Amino acid sequence: MHAPFDRAAANVGNIVKLEHVNVRVTDQAPATLFYLAGLGLTRDPYVNVSTNLMWVNVGRQQFHLPTGAPQVIRGWTGLVVPDRAELLDRLARVAKQLTGTKFFLREHDEFVEVHCPWGNKLRCHTPDREAFGAIQLGLPYVEFDVPAGTAAGIARFYRQIMKAPAELITTNAGAATRVAMGEQWMLFRETDAPLPDYDNHHIQIYVGDFGGPYAEMQARGLISMETNAHEYRFIDMIDPEDGRLLYKLEHEVRSLLHPGYGRDFINRNPAQQGLNYVAGKDSLHWALP
Question: How confident is the model over 242-247, as a mean pLDDT?
Answer without folding.
Answer: 97
